[in-house]
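Weekly structure sync - notes
Attendees: PM, LS, DV (DV joined late)
Agenda: review two folding runs queued last week.

Item 1: First target. Sequence and structure tokens pasted below for the record.
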Amino acid sequence: MTPVEEFENAIALYFGAPYAVAVDSCTHAIELSLRLLLEDNKEYKFTCPSHTYLSVPMTFEKLQLPWQFTNEEWKDYYYIGDTNVIDAAVLWKSNSYIPSTLMCLSFQLRKHLAVGRAGMILCDNENDRDILKQMRHDGRPNNGFWHEMKIERMGYHYYITYETAVTGLDQFRKLAQEPARKWTWQDYPDLSTYDIFNKGEMTYYV
């Protein structure tokens, strides 16, 4: 078992999720989760709380999705519109996984598990897990030599390094049961006031 797989198993067990997919940031966890949803060609309403981190609405722009800010006063986590994707970047609570969701975690330096550049996607669908694992690692179906593989899926260079996973495991063993800071929407500025998001077409959807 690789350090990445050990890290995934430890986090999945802590949060009470059947599966976990480690990536290099929560932002990329959200992006891959949205890309997975978009493969179904279903209609979704993409929304974003005005009080959150910059990269969330920027991800919508990157994926060229229609979206709107909301007035949501969230705590610990929030859903990305009417999808099953959850931004749980600031959540740290045992057995808190919500079934049938793609729950995205952050282990950035200000978070409870402060690994650095790392994130995780929790899920309970084995097929979703397998697809997400391919997507995060340049479409590679396993950890072998890529030039010997048949690459059949478009992927992205979002794989977590073994060194980061080892650090994550070490931090987890020290901090798993330690009380974590509670985050809410009030910890973030109002992004709807930022010029970069003020295009005249983004309005509040309440």
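Item 2: Second target, run right after the first with the same settings.
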Amino acid sequence: MTASRKLAAPITLAMAICVVAWAGVRAWGENPATAVDAASAARRASAAEQPVDVEQRLMSRIEPGAQLDAGPPKDWSHLVLHAVPRVAEGDVKKASALVNRLVSQFHLTVLANVQAVDNLQPPLYRLEKVAIGMALPIGGKETVISSATQQALGAKLGFVDRNALAETETSLHGVRQVARTGTMLVFDAPSIMRLDKKNRSVTQRHAILVSPNTGKLATLVWILEPGEEGALRLVDDDARLLPESCEDDRKIYIDAAQFSFGIPNKQAFALVSLPEGDSIPIAESWRNLAVSKFQESADAVSLEQALRAALGWNKEVTQR
């Protein structure tokens, strides 16, 4: 192997591995809302009304330096997802020590902040913000980093690791918010998953909802792929309801057929499954909403209403 090829191999490897960042039904019952008089109900309804956003937007990023070990960092109320990938299935013998290290190095993190509306009794809650980022242990503390801040934060990554981080950050640019209300945010994350004995390119759709009455948060994830004439279609008939503060042991499948001269391409690594959690059947009544491209605000509102029903969140304050 020439000197230039020896240098290119770990860089190519790092670029390929970056994609693994996104490699019984339980109903959540709610206590009935406290009865309020007509004037209070009107104030609550007015406070609940929020503009609906169906423009595709880049997801916000978590501020580098945020630490996760003691729960959600300052200014955040919920750790939605913390995913630590590892080589687990498939042609695991193809995974060198470098492959194993790069696969497991950066940990996808999703945070949310639920906020009570000022001066309302009983309280009324909104989903104030959601953001994503990559974390890794620094000095024994799980810390969100970026390429621009990793050295100052103490990560001091080497050349190959910096390239892997840069490619991972580039892959996060593909994660898009596709629908937003005052109490729900939906985002789509391009992913490679092991389905039907193949590493397939799909989209993981995440819906994060908050109960306006209790502030409780729920996160559902389901899998989409391109259908006919540019439409989306469901890969599975169930959505996954993630546990609170989901710590995902993100198992990675390695496909030896996607290696060339010992170097993997991006299709070589695939997520084995969605994070563990309860299955929520995608009922016929909201199958079309689950695959919506959100051309109209009403699509987002209708999906939120359907998800509330699927979760058993009844007698909710209507969010628009």
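Discussion on item 2: The mean pLDDT is 86.
Action: LS to circulate a short write-up before next sync.
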